[in-house]
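Recap from last week: sequence in, structure out.
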Amino acid sequence: MIIIIPEEFVEKIKGWIEDKNGFDIEIINITEMSSVANYFVIASGNSERQVKAIADNIEYETKKLEIFPKGIEGQREGRWILLDYYDVIVHIFHADERGFYNLEKLWKSSTITK
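Predicted structure tokens:
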């Protein structure tokens, strides 16, 4: 397995999303807000087929680097696919679903309580 720095990994993921015409890509650093991961990558596709193609491309490219996800959710439906790569969690939404869940607003408005 190739060791990759999370900041570099999110940029690679962004490129792989763009390769499949994913759009509205946001990278959110959640290091200070959560112990679950360091980054969320959130992107959209216009159809279930495109959402699946984006997720499939990320899986394909990460396997070439011998990086394997801890878990994958939502592939069957193709409305919201989550790929968990430990330090980086990727959310690929159908454009209609993304506005409903609005993860960016949720995480960007989170405050750190000590």
